[in-house]
Amino acid sequence: MTSGRSERAPSGRMTAEDRRKQIILIAAELFSQKGFRGTTTKEIADRAGVSEAIIFRHFATKDDLYAAILSFKIQQAGERLNTQLTEAARRKDDQVFFGSLAFEMLEFHCKDESFIRLLLYSALEGHDLSSFVFHSAARDFKERIHRYIQQRIADGVFRQINPAVAARAFIGMVLHQAEMRTIYKATDELKISNKQIAERFVEIFLNGISESSPR
Fold first, then answer.
1. How is residue 1 annotated by DSSP?
2. Secondary structure of residue 117 in the 3-state scheme
3. C-alpha angle 205/209/213, rounded to 5°?
4. Domain limits at 130?
5. In sequence order, which residues have a C-beta less than 8 Å from that of residue 69 and are 6 or more positions away?
6. At what angle do helices 41-48 and 16-34 cross, to 10 degrees?
7. Pair 129, 178 in one domain
8. Domain for residue 183, yes or no?
9. Which of 10, 122, 152, 189 has CB 3.0 to 4.6 Å from 130, enough for a Cys bridge?
10. Average of pLDDT values for 42-51?
């Protein structure tokens, strides 16, 4: 069953920007349900209530449309989080830095299940855009976490560990939980809110890498 926003376009002329956004939202839903290969531009056009020519007026190729979807969703995910991480890093507030990261990631994936499905489909189908996400779009984000951990090691707060391994361990916890709830619908194991889950994950993580933690 499709959401209300995926119905045919309402009567009345849309601006070019509104039409582009509508196409992105509809295509994101279809791609997340059927994959890149399983979705045709005709299906997208039919759902949007336009001709394929309109699709290609906004996006030269199907690949360009897919890239625009991922870029749009990455931008959505990063805007709010960037502000929070910048302020927490300035104050060197470990709880807020990692707590904001975990909570916003969980909230984003719960509110928009299509993104994680798009990432999984692109990787399983061997699409070039999976590399775009993991090696380009997410690189700055990962490096930001690495730098924060390195700084806290230099401050003597975190013990001598590999920052890349520590960052991957933390992100792995959070993404696994997001997958459990959005892909596998496993809501019976942790009957607590995303805020509470984020707090528990941060507690476990910081207890493990703090200089004062048992070796």
1. -
2. helix
3. 105
4. 66-209
5. 24, 27, 28, 31, 118
6. 130
7. yes
8. yes
9. 122
10. 96
Pairwise CA distance, residues 178 & 189, whole Å: 13
* Same domain flag for 26 and 79: no
Any bridge partners for residue 210, and if so which? 158
Summarised one tens digit per residue, pLDDT across range 120-141 is: 888 888 877 777 666 665 677 7
Distance of alpha carbon 167 from alpha carbon 140, whole angstroms: 13
Residue 25 has pLDDT above 80, yes or no: yes
CA dihedral of 117, 181, 82, 71, whole degrees rounded to 10? 10
Q: With pLDDT > 90 as the criterion, what percentage of the chain qualifies? A: 57
pTM: 0.81
Q: Encoding tokens for residue 83? A: 């502000």
Dump pLDDT digits (tens) for 192-212: 899 999 999 999 999 999 987
Distance CA 66, CA 24 (A): 8
d(CA 198, CA 104): 9
CB–CB of 194/103 below 8 Å? yes
Q: What is the pLDDT of residue 10?
A: 47
pLDDT at 81: 84
What CA–CA distance (Å, rounded) separates 201 from 185? 20
Helices (H) and strands (E) in the chain, counts: 10, 0
Mean pLDDT of 142-167: 94
In a domain, 174, yes or no: yes
- Say if CB 74 and CB 133 are below 8 A apart: yes
